[in-house]
Amino acid sequence: MMKKLLLMLSFFLIASYSWAQDRTVSGTVTDKDGPLPGVNVIVKGTTIGTTTDLDGNYKLSVSSDAEALVFTYIGYEKTEVTIGSKSVIDVTLNPDVQQLGEVVVTALGVSREKRSIGYSTQSVDGEKLAESRETNIINSLQGAVAGVQIQGSQGAMGGSSRITIRGANSFLGENQPLFVVDGMPINNDNYSNANQQSGFGGGAYDYGNAASDINPNDIASMEVLKGAAATALYGTRGSNGVILITTKSASQKKGLGVSINSSATFENPLALMEHQQKYGGGATTSSPSGFVEFIEDGTNYLAPVYSKDGAWGPKYDPSINVRHWDSWDPNAANYGETRPWVAPENEYEEFFETGVTLTNSVAVTGANDEGDFRLSYTNLDQKGMMPNSELGRNTVSFNSTYNLSDKLKVSAAGSLIQQDASGRNATGYANANPMQGFYQWWQTQLDFDRLKDDTFTDGTQQTWNPVGAQVDPNTGQLLGFDPSVRFFDNPYWVRNNYLQEDTRDRFFGNFNLNYELTDGLSVNLKAMRDGFTFRSREGVPVGGINQPSYNEVTRTFGETNLEGKILYDTQFNEDITLNAMVGGNLMSQGRTYNRIATVGGLVLPNFYNIANSAGSPQVNTDFENRAINSVFSTASLGLFYTVYVDLAIRGDWSSTLPEGSNNYWYPSVSTSFVFSELDAFADNSVISFGKLRAGYGQAANDASPYQLRNVYSNVVPNFGSFPRYTVPNSRRNPNLLPEITNEFEVGLEMNFLNNRVGFDVSYYDRTTVNQIFNVPSSSATGFTSRLLNAGSMRNSGFEVMVNATPVESGDFRWDMNLNFATFNNEVVELNEEAGVESIIAGSTWAADVRVQKGFPYMSLFGQTFQTDEDGNTIVGANGIPLANQDREFLGSTIADFAGGFRNTFTYKNFSVGALIDFQGGGVIHSTSLQWAKYSGMTPETAEGNIREEGLIVDGVTETGETNTTAVDPQTYYQTIWSVAGPNVYDASFVKLREVTVGYNIPNSVFGNLAIKDARISFLGRNLAILFSNLPYLDPQGVNGAGNIQGLENAQVPTSRSLGFDLSFKF
Amino acid sequence: MKNISKLYIMLASLFVGLAACTQDFEEINTDPNNPTDVPASTLLTQAQFSLANRVWSRQMNFEFGMLMVQQFSQGEYAEDSRYNQNVSTFNVSWNSFYASGIYDLVAARELVQANESLTDAIKGNQTAVLDILKVWAMQIVTDTWVNVPYSEAFNPDEFSNPAYDSQQEIYTGLVSELNAAIAAINESEPGFNSGDVFYGGDMAAWARFANSLKLKIGMRIADVDAGTASTLVSEALNAGVFTANDEGFIFNFASDQRIANPFYVDNAINNRDDFAVSGVLVQTLKDLNDPRLTAFADTSITGDYTGHTYGLLDGPSFEEFATTSRPNPSIREATAPAYLLTYAEVKFFEAEAIERGFVGGNAATAYNEAVTASMNQWGFDDSEGAITDYLTANPYNAANWEESIGVQKWLALYTNGLEAWAEWRRIDFPQLAVPEDAVRDYIPVRALYTSDELGNNGNAVSNSGINNEMNVKPWWDVN
Fold this sequence. Notes:
The complex is a heterodimer. Chain A has eleven helices and 64 strands. Chain A is elongated. In chain B, 52% of the residues lie in helices and 4% in strands. In chain B, helix 8 runs antiparallel to helix 9, helix 14 runs antiparallel to helix 15 and helix 15 (363-377) packs parallel to helix 17. At the A-B interface, strand 30, strand 33, strand 34, strand 35 and strand 36 of A face helix 1, helix 2, helix 3, helix 5 and strand 2 of B.
């Protein structure tokens, strides 16, 4: 170390002398594939140097006493060649497989050697991502990155997914990371509201999250920046982490190249609820047979109770013939037909179709001395598992760089995306979501082949759940049959007649100008734009249970960023490097929302048009604009290839905060110490790399627009001629301050045995204070909430990544990587002054999730059964357990830990890989199971002979004796449903997330054909739930991408997919 | 190197200068979607609709008030009729009363007070209208939940956690607010020329309503504070209360489903068919040979008027539901009015006031007028002597006036569940039984404080002076 310090001093002394330059050395730098442009060539021990041109050529004047040339290029091993008497030095650089030279993209697109980074980041290879064939890039990150958690309606076609990094920071605000594509922040809006997230929302559709527009096939690499030290430069919007995506560009090799990729995957439900097979649907009546008994035209009939949406009907008996739901069409041949009372041949699994996802893409690349380009087209064509659901997406991406001169370079990159979907699935507790029936309110005897017949011969709906037969209670004569819907439309009729269509047209891209003022000093100007128009149409048909309606919604989004940067990048000598940057950004963002909807129903059936509104249509519009101006600066100093120090500061001016507090500054500092460079490790054969790092960062967040002044809001319609206005229930606040997140992290990275084994461990501790949120208030104040700066929340945890190559022998190689993260979260404070200790963020009948002081974020609360000192359930005299009246803490919906474990085996041209991912802890409340038990649908409601003999709850009486009182299971389940405890489950899981089997077809196979680099692979995603404590359902399937998690309600099944993938180039 | 630092600093200053350019921010952050100023009348209209809609809502009326007094019965998922309410049940209603309906009145009052273009007389009239409505609504709130925030309510700057007042204090406050409003009325000047759905700005009508309301408040406390009650009642009757059905405090809903009668919205729009007319009510009407049976109920599929047994478990209740009577279609029409305070009820109060000696007069006459008014309200007249016959068969019984008035009032207040429930608690007639399968072993006499209030104003709830159970009687309910 001392030696190096002396060297550095001498460098400063020597640097002021000029060097004699008396001969020329030239040559070509290549790697195994061809010439390498942009390689740094430096005369050893000097600052003299150059870089190679597009053809990999360089030419350099060197002094007579120059010893050697040093070739450095990001991602390649540093190579030193003695000059001697040579005038031509050609060099082939070897890729640096060790971490030493690994390059990562950091904030604002600055590429840095990983060793110099003082905070945790994790890279994901674009090829790996694309290989998963997930259409939403968020899902492809599942199990791949330590500290990242994915939730949402995975599996629903085009459904939204939620991603969080290191947990949630904000009580009610955005908690998902910022997506940045080639420097451009990308909108990731999703339109689900709190009602929808807790499973309500009137059949609202899941419109996905907007970042799913990013085409996985265009991604070269993804870098996940986790902590505030890494993301401070993104200001406000980076406070939940940043996912930096670099799209593919042309390889800088001359000539044209074409690559083609095709894949097909097939999807089926991964997990479905089991229905009991012993009893049919409806109710058991007090008649002798338990059926509805009636006489029609002198014939005696039995019929189940059609109007009851449950499964407490009579026991199956093939000798009993009954009038089923579909025997009532007076014009049909089967009118009056009876069939045996038996379990259905085709259960609701039949309802789902095999989903098909076809992805085809072609990319053309080219380069010459002046520039390069890449143009790609990808077509995604998806058919969902729900009948009549389709999604198509076309993406055209282009990027290009053009060198106007040695110093001036322009580049542009952009994507045009056009997405069409129809027949998306409605979510949650709604007739429009067939899962509400299948999972909660169903008659178990229904055969799905027969349900397909969803209309009477006159074209009106035929449902399994009509009001039904009307029987004279005195004579038993059939008075009539009311075919109108009691609660549930026929699920096929829903999928055939409800309207759902949407389109999104989007462009995002950027234009760059880079000018090199002098060596190492350059100016970069960048203009970026992300904009889309999203249109949707929804219609409820005439003839169903819900009022017919039709609406059109248009949403637009636009964001422009203008960024200027001055970069200074120098290497004083081999030992001292300096990277500095100062810059600024002007951001402006606008959203519009227009909705027009019918009122009072539709006049004509099958005509979805605003003109068909029974009443005058309702129009709603909303505009939202905001702007943030920013400046930022960083400096990064590297010493001796060993110690690195980064300093960064950013200042934001936000339009959404009041004058006086709309400007806020936040710093970050981080340092990395590569201790394996110390002399003591020089000859260590075990430890090949070691680095300690520490970082501290601060981030700040502004408010939503328009929160400073109280307003009145219009209520439609006018009452007669009187307009109506009301005071909104949320009170605004003229004195808002920005919310602040502070985070500290430390980490250790080590590689052993020639880098065969390595680990990376981080610990972070982050607290967000001054949160801006609508503090719920007693409505007796006149407001149900008021906007305040209040509260703080703390997150901490460990993140571990382990990489190993246990076997590498000849042509065989086994790679392993494990990532693992723990999550600790506590709501430290809400609002002491206002006396607020709890916010109910979302609730169902029996359970709610809260942000409550002293508990983890989104903790689940509900009633439980009373227990004695030994933990026995206390059962009342009626045989039903006694419940505690107050709602209690039933667990955190946040996992304690999560991770993924991937193994890849390569033998010659074959490779096999498998990813298992897991989550430990966290709880989920299942409303589906609550109602399925209430309705007598699940097997436990029909166990043994409990329906005939009653069930005896395992517990003790109030006096301490063993309970022996039997209770009718229907009474039991219909009494305890409001007690959340029995329907709260541990959400831990282990899933076989991915298996791929690939074969690289040798180029020789194609002989003289131009085809090369062909690869075929078979893949499976979400193949199996290897372990779960939640019966039947998928613990990851909740409603949407919002903050409210842990409340399952009529989940749309997640999908298992299998398929193949073919790619080649020519 | 030096030059580079200079350049760096220069450009840095340039960036900061640019970024600190925030003169557009004021404009960018001005809400284009909502106005910052509106006429007070627009808030009045919304408050009138919102309060009427709430009192008539499924949650407060036909799934609560009307079930508590057994006018309706639940056909399926019969939880509420078995008193299986919990702290979440009333969240929406509590919040709607305080933060929507009544607060819009308070906000409108501030706008009226600040409006310098109004004459003193008009300003006084408009303020009176807003205050009368507030008193009317607050009485319903306190009669439902008993001790509630009042003196510290609607003042978010000063009291972010409003304390709960005792019901007695609230009544004292309401009386003084109401007296001040009555005193401020100038009947020769208009109130709200626009926006007043109830009375179209007619201050004489407002004065009659204010005095009728005063009568109602007075009679409510008759058992607990006869002295005050007597004063209030005689003042009100002297000043002039309703004299005809059409003077009543009646909200006429509109045909647009967004501002239509909640019975209609629930049934016709939301396609819910969850309520039948209760067996108790049908039996009473049949026993009295009361023509209103045909106006209250619809025939069942068998063509009869069949009441639904009140308070059964889900299974038996559902089995019975197919053959029992639904409410009459006339109360489920979009424009069916909400009878919030009627001439009939005023007459019942008068009869009782005479009986109690608060004022002079003939109690039986007032009783007959009350029953007649109710018959008329439900579409029956005496042209064929039907009402006379009815009164002859069911005359006023001074010896058991509680039963006479209690039962008839219970019938007259059909569809106004909360008021029927309040009067049943006070008079204790008709005699209602706790159903066998009820979750609670008493008929609830108050609603539960809400989970929202427990969470957001927990200390105040703890200090409310009453336990949060449904058997805590209102202050005025002394037996």
